[in-house]
C-alpha cells in the first residue's frame, strides 16, 4: 500500500508513504505518525493512526492561499470523510465530477486505486477521515436498503463512488465521537480497543443518517447555517463563558430568533441544553482522567459556585461529582 502526494509546479514529492501490513494483518499493533505542513503551503499537522483494517487521519491546517496538489494511491479503501472546516475538491478519472466538500459535511467514499488532484481552500482546514479495508467495511453494511446495496455492488465491481450523491450535515452526536477520537490519549492495546469502538459508533451514526431518507432539507440559508455552526464552535471552545442568546447571536452576526430556530433545526436541541450537556461531558471526563478537585473542575466549566455544579451534574447523571470521582460510578 502506497500513497504519494506531490506538487507539479515545484516538481517535488511532499509525502510518499508505504502503509504497514497492519492495515490488513492482525498483529495487535497500533502505529502512529504525525506529518507537519510547512511554508509555503501553510502551517499545521496531519495525525495518522493505523491498525488492522483501519486507518484514521485527522489534521488542522492554516493555509496562506489555495493549495493544489496531486496524489496517487495504489490501494482500495472505503473512506468515512468528515469536513469540519474549509473547502476541498478532488478531481480524478475515477469519478465523473469533482468531489467537493465544504465545512460541516460528511459522506462515505469508495476509492479504487485513485490518482488525480486535490484543491484546498479556506484559511483554516480541519478534517477527519477513517479509511477501512473494503471487505471489513462490507460486514457492517445493512442489506435492507437499495442505497447500501448499490454501494456494496460498486465496491465488488471496483467502481469508485460516493455512497450518497449528496453530502450530509455532521450531527452533534458525530461531533462528540470525532472529538473523542481526536483527543484520545490512551496507549497501546487500550487505545486500539477505544478507537475501534469509536469508529464503529461513528459508522453507525453515518449509516443511520443515510438510511433516514425522510429527513427534510434545511430551511436555513447557507450563510445562516455557517453562523449556527460558529456558535457551536464557540461553545465547545469556551465552556467557562456565560453568554446570553443575544450575546451569542450578535457575536456571529445574526439575531436571537434565527439562532434559536436554526440551532434546534440543525442539532435537534436548544443552545443551552447543548451547552449544559457538553459542560457535563467535559466535567465527567475530568473527574475520570484528571487530578483537578471538584472546585477546580467547577471553575473550568464556568460555575462560580461548586454546589450549583454538583446539582447540575446530579440532574444529568443521577450521582453527585464526589461519588462519581471516587469510584461509585454513573447510573442513568
Automatic annotation (TrEMBL):
What are the protein's UniProt keywords? Answer: DNA-binding, Transcription, Transcription regulation
Per UniProt, what is one Pfam family of this protein? HTH_18
Q: Is the keyword DNA-binding assigned to this protein?
A: yes
Tagged with keyword DNA-binding: yes
HTH araC/xylS-type domain sequence ranges = 229-327
- The molecule here is called AraC family transcriptional regulator
The residues forming the signal peptide are none
One GO MF term: DNA-binding transcription factor activity
Top-level taxon of origin: Bacteria
Species name: Chryseobacterium pennae
Parts forming coiled coils:
none
* PROSITE patterns, sorted: HTH_ARAC_FAMILY_2
The cross-references to InterPro entries, in alphabetical order and at most eight, read: Homeodomain-like_sf, HTH_AraC, PchR_regulatory_protein, Tscrpt_reg_AraC-type_HTH
Amino acid at each position: 500500500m502506497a500513497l504519494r502526494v506531490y506538487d507539479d509546479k515545484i516538481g517535488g514529492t511532499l509525502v510518499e508513504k508505504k502503509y504497514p501490513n497492519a492495515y490488513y494483518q492482525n498483529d495487535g499493533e497500533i502505529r502512529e505518525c504525525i506529518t507537519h505542513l510547512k511554508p509555503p503551503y501553510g502551517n499545521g499537522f496531519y495525525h495518522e493512526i493505523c491498525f488492522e483494517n483501519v486507518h484514521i487521519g485527522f489534521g488542522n491546517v492554516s493555509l496562506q492561499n489555495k493549495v493544489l496538489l496531486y496524489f496517487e494511491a495504489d490501494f482500495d479503501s472505503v473512506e468515512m470523510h468528515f469536513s469540519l472546516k474549509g473547502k476541498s475538491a478532488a478531481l480524478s478519472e475515477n469519478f465523473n465530477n469533482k468531489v467537493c466538500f465544504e465545512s460541516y459535511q460528511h459522506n462515505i467514499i469508495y476509492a479504487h486505486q485513485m490518482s488525480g488532484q486535490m484543491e484546498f481552500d479556506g484559511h483554516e482546514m480541519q478534517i477527519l477521515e477513517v479509511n477501512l479495508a473494503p471487505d471489513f467495511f462490507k460486514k457492517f453494511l445493512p442489506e435492507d436498503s437499495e442505497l447500501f446495496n448499490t454501494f456494496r455492488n460498486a465496491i465488488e465491481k471496483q467502481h469508485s463512488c460516493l455512497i450518497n450523491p449528496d453530502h450530509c450535515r455532521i450531527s452533534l452526536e458525530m461531533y462528540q465521537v470525532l472529538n473523542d477520537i481526536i483527543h484520545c490519549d490512551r496507549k497501546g492495546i487500550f487505545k486500539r480497543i477505544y478507537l475501534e469502538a469509536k469508529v464503529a459508533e461513528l459508522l453507525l451514526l453515518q449509516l443511520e443518517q443515510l438510511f433516514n431518507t425522510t429527513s427534510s432539507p434545511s430551511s436555513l440559508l447557507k450563510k445562516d447555517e455557517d453562523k449556527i455552526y460558529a456558535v457551536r464552535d464557540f461553545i465547545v471552545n469556551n465552556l467557562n463563558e456565560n453568554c446570553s442568546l443575544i450575546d451569542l447571536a450578535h457575536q456571529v452576526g445574526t439575531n436571537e430568533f434565527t439562532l434559536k430556530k436554526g440551532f434546534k433545526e440543525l442539532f435537534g436541541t436548544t443552545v443551552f441544553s447543548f451547552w449544559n450537556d457538553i459542560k457535563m461531558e467535559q466535567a465527567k471526563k475530568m473527574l475520570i482522567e484528571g487530578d483537578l478537585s471538584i472546585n477546580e473542575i467547577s471553575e473550568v466549566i464556568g460555575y462560580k459556585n461548586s454546589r450549583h455544579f454538583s446539582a447540575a451534574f446530579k440532574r444529568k447523571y443521577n450521582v453527585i461529582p464526589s461519588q462519581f470521582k471516587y469510584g461509585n460510578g454513573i447510573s442513568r
